[in-house]
Design a protein that fits this description.
Layout: E1 5-14, H1 18-29, E2 34-38, H2 54-62, H3 66-70, E3 82-85, E4 92-96, H4 101-105, H5 124-136, E5 141-145, E6 148-154, E7 159-165, E8 168-179, H6 186-191, E9 195-210, H7 212-218, E10 225-229, E11 233-238, E12 244-251, H8 262-270, E13 277-291, E14 295-296, E15 299-301, E16 307-309, H9 315-335, H10 345-369, H11 381-398, H12 400-403, H13 406-410, E17 463-467, H14 475-484, E18 488-492, E19 505-508, E20 514-518, H15 524-531, H16 534-539
Parallel strand pairs: 1-2, 1-8, 2-5, 3-10, 8-15, 17-18
Antiparallel strand pairs: 3-4, 6-7, 7-8, 9-12, 9-13, 10-11, 11-12, 13-16, 14-15, 17-19, 19-20
Helix pairs in contact: 1-5, 1-9, 9-10, 14-15
């Protein structure tokens, strides 16, 4: 029997969705050769996630992509507001007014932003082509569609991945493999890793339509999402701000959605018939599941391969982008030799607790948002007015954080990581909770340095020593970094507000999270060893 052809690969990424492409771009920009394989020959036509979070946009800003992404998706003048109505043609109950992409690009209200990059409403239909186009332009990054993983075997030195395409079967000898291949991950299956959690929170029927008439109806009072309350809660989402729309309808977890007619569901949400062409119907289950492990040896899981949950706020995709940002700098540090392989064990220690807390918080938010609504909201006269006012009060309590979930963007942390020094015990992550103050383990808070530059923009590619008191000598830091081979950039910003940056020295990691805060009495060598996982290696 003829043996399959073989070749050498640095990092093999299985899956070319937002998580896999972000990881590949980040690795390539850090000088790590990587190869992406994707089973699908063409991108999906399912809109899927329709929000890129503020933290994801910050990550894309670091990668030089945020401008292209923000100019893609909805038209720049299209508001990203949310309306709650009895039906799309019916009575308004509540609304959350949010700015358009054009207003964000113009900087309207930027002095109040906790970020240089507010969230952006963009369907994966439009996000993925931007990421793929950029990925293909980078040296050291190759992407191969129509290729699926069929086998995986590893030892201490490498991973052998068997892939199949129309060209035949090959064996890839890889330094590392990362499964970014979704909820039905072949990588996770080959590792024998299972999900843990709640297998069904809600069921959904999602109908993707082209309807110029729906666009004309929406133009009377434009919004990004229209929540409606017919027989059951539904949300009509603007995909391109003109003709493309997605209708999500929620059902109880035990409901058989196969008998639900998408045409009838759309009529109920709109409040009558509307001319349209159905482009796709997906019947799916919202879950709350996290993988029991995020890695085994030289193989890692990220994105939906590691965690799936009901898509409140789009945080399945966005958590995957955070996974990619964490894993990219760790793989690059090991690849370039300035951190030991033991550093990679911290990936699971940091990201799995975040995944578990996100899953619980998203489940709570979904239950609150999809709670039963009184049919009295459809009544005429005073009785209907009272019922709608009561629902509006409930929505005012549950919805604003859901649609501006700054706690998920800026409140997640690695305070308990072995790579973080001085991380304090923290309350559980929630959608709205975060402090705009530097803390060990958290993403460095944003502040504008001038009209265009954020403090996040001046950080180095790898580790950064941020000095707010230039009277403190840092030659011990640069000397220790040189001796250990750790790339360290010193940035002096003496004007930073002390209430937001409470320490004259801040050691910031390549993923923009704070590893340590302190002063002149620091021991730079010990701190740098800890932040790069060297103490873990020495203890073994």
């Amino acid at each position: 029997m003829k043996r399959p052809a073989s070749e050498r690969v640095g990092v093999l990424i299985v899956g070319a969705g937002p998580t896999g492409l972000t990881l590949a771009i980040d690795l390539a920009r850090r000088g790590v050769v990587c190869h992406v394989v994707e089973a699908a020959e063409r991108r999906t036509v399912n809109p899927r996630c329709n929000t890129t979070s503020a933290r994801s946009m910050e990550i894309f800003r670091r990668l030089g992509l945020s401008g292209d992404i923000r100019r893609t998706g909805l038209p720049e003048d299209y508001p990203t507001s949310i309306q709650y109505r009895t039906s799309m043609r019916g009575e308004e109950i509540f609304r959350i007014d949010l700015p358009s992409a054009g207003e964000v690009l113009a900087g309207a209200g930027k002095d109040r932003w906790p970020t240089p990059e507010p969230q952006h409403r963009i369907s994966q239909l439009f996000l993925e082509p931007v990421l793929e186009r950029h990925a293909k332009s980078l040296p050291g990054l190759t992407l191969e569609r129509g290729t699926r993983l069929t086998g995986l075997r590893q030892d201490e030195d490498q991973v052998e991945a068997v892939v199949e395409s129309t060209a035949g079967t090959r064996v890839l000898h890889c330094d590392y493999v990362v499964g970014c291949d979704g909820a039905h991950s072949a990588v996770r299956r080959h590792l024998g890793i299972r999900y843990q959690g709640v297998d069904a929170i809600r069921k959904f029927v999602s109908t993707f339509v082209r309807s110029p008439e729906l666009g004309r109806l929406a133009a009377r009072d434009r919004a990004w999402t229209y929540w409606t309350y017919g027989r059951r809660p539904a949300s009509i989402i603007a995909i391109d701000g003109r003709d493309l729309w997605l209708n999500h309808v929620a059902f109880d977890p035990g409901h058989d959605t196969e008998g639900e007619d998408p045409e009838r569901l759309l009529r109920e949400a709109v409040g009558g018939s509307v001319e349209h062409e159905v482009l796709g119907v997906v019947r799916w289950t919202g879950r709350r599941l996290v993988a029991e492990r995020y890695h085994e040896g030289r193989v890692f899981l990220a994105g939906d391969a590691a965690h799936i949950w009901i898509p409140v706020g789009g945080f399945g995709m966005n958590a995957g982008i955070q996974d990619a940002a964490t894993l990219a700098w760790m793989l690059a540090a090991v690849h370039h030799g300035w951190a030991p392989a033991d550093l990679l064990t911290a990936y699971e220690l940091e990201r799995k607790p975040v995944g578990e807390q996100f899953a619980r918080a998203v489940g709570r938010a979904a239950r609150a948002s999809l709670a039963d609504v009184s049919p009295d909201i459809h009544l005429p006269g005073a009785e209907g007015t009272r019922a709608r006012a009561e629902l509006a009060r409930r929505l005012a309590a549950t919805e604003p954080h859901r649609y501006s979930p700054d706690g998920f963007s800026f409140g997640y942390h690695y305070a308990g990581s072995p790579l973080v020094i001085g991380g304090a015990d923290q309350v559980a992550i929630d959608m709205g909770g975060y402090e705009q103050r530097a803390q060990a383990g958290f993403r460095l808070p944003h502040v504008w340095l001038d009209d265009t530059r954020s403090v996040l923009d001046v950080l180095g590619t790898d580790f950064t020593l941020l000095r707010t008191d230039t009277g403190i000598e840092v030659t011990a830091w640069t000397g220790a970094a040189s001796e250990l081979g750790i790339p360290l950039t010193v940035v002096d910003l003496p004007g930073l507000p002390p209430d937001r940056y409470p320490g004259p020295l801040l050691l910031v990691r390549p993923d923009q999270h704070v590893a340590w805060i302190g002063g002149a009495d620091a021991r730079p060598g010990e701190l740098l060893r800890t932040a790069t996982g060297r103490f873990v290696s020495q203890q073994r």
